[in-house]
Structure formats: C-alpha cells, structure tokens
Amino acid sequence: MASTDRYRRPSDLPLQLPVFPLRGTILLPRAGLPLNVFEPRYLAMLDDVIAGPRVLGLVQPVPGEDGESPPGKSIGLRRVGCAGRVTAFQELDDGRLVISLTGICRFDVVEEISTPKPYRIVEARYDRFAADLSEGHGEDDVDRGNLLRVLRSYLDANRLKADWSAIQRSPSELLVNALSVMSPYGAEEKQALLEAADLKTRADVLVALAEMELASTSGTGGTVQ
C-alpha cells in the first residue's frame, strides 16, 4: 500500500495544518518533492510533524520581494496549498534535514491560527478537492499523446536527457503532477498548475506553458509541430 493510501476522505486529514511557505514551489497529489531543511523554525516544525501525523502543508506566499521563504508571519499566504506526508527523512551531521514529501490533497486556507510556535499553522479545508484522494481521477480525459509530444520537444530543445521508457510507463496522473511540481516556471505559473480544476486542465496548462517557451526560444510565434 502506498504511503498516502490511508487518506481516503477529507476527514482523514488534519484540520490544523503546519505549513511551509515556499515561493515558486508546489506539491500535488502523489507527486514527490525533496526538500533540504535548515532554518530553525522549519526544523522545529518537522520535529513536531515527524513525531505526530507526519502531514504538513506546502503553500506559496503572496507575491512580494521577500525571498523564497519570507521571515516572520506577516506575509500573506495563497489561498490554496497542498498537504503532503513526510515519507522519508535523513538528519545530516550539520543539523539539516533532507526530507521527501508525497502529495496527498490540495486544501483551501480558511484562516491562519495564532500559535507561539515559530512556524505557521492554518485551518485547512479539503472538501473542494476531495477528488484528489482518488488515485488516477481524470486520467482518461488527458490528451496523453499531445503531452508526450510536447515533453519530448521540450527535452530535445533544452538538450535534457530522460528515461523515456519510464516516462511512457508512468500513469498520466503521476506524469502530469510530477512534471508540474518539477517544472521550471515562476510562482504564478506554478500556482495556476496547482489550482487547475482537474487533471486535464492541468495537463493543458502544462502543455501551453511548454509550447510558449519553445516558441520563444525558437524565435517563432507558433506552436510546436
């Protein structure tokens, strides 16, 4: 059983969720995300998370010039994030933690909860994204052929290597969500991928972003053929 299969309904997830505000980074259901954690506030958060339900939220701060992870608690948070489970962690000799997060379900930020903890906690509501808990939901609607075509063009244009046989074997949900998490786009594009209504819409946004980048680098105004 996969580590996130235990979460079958919104009520299986904590309503009060410690969050990692990180600009330009998103998490999506069943996609993995490695994080290198070194700030004392987040090391304290992970001590509590690992000792507890092992679930935390990843949410982007609102647009601003406050760096990747703004200090303090005054910077606003986006209204949609994603809960993930800490599925692996390693403590390094210098005190850092290297963790692996696996996405579970997106959530709406209802409000921030006042806490003496050095990290931030929000009240999370998952009901709007309950379909995230169903593995493979919406896969049949994805234009997989077009997604793979554009992905290959993108890899070739950027001289990137990938295990193409593994990509072809990957379920469409995992492929779309993992590519969205790993994509090199900015905070606004990442948030659009996160908030996409369904898997097909997310795949379409991913394809559109890649085609725009390919068109700009090739000096043409059209789409990839």
Regions with pLDDT < 50 over 5+ consecutive residues? 220-225
Provide the helix percentage: 25-40%
Q: How many helices does DSSP assign? A: 6
Query: Main beta sheet: strand number and arrangement?
Result: 5 strands, mixed, barrel
* Topology pattern, helix = H, strand = E: EEHEEEEHHHHH
Report the principal-axis shape. globular
Strand content is 15-25%
Global Rg: 18 Å
Number of strands: 6
- Overall pLDDT, averaged? 91
Summarize the structure.
This protein is of the alpha+beta class.
Protein described:
- The chain has a 5-stranded mixed β-barrel with strand order 1-3-4-5-6.
- The radius of gyration is 18 Å and the shape is globular.
- It is α+β, with helices and mostly antiparallel strands.
- The protein has 6 helices and 6 strands, in the order ββαββββααααα.
- The chain has helices at residues 40-51, 144-157, 164-169, 172-182, 187-195, 199-218; strands at 16-21, 32-37, 55-59, 80-91, 97-113, 120-125.
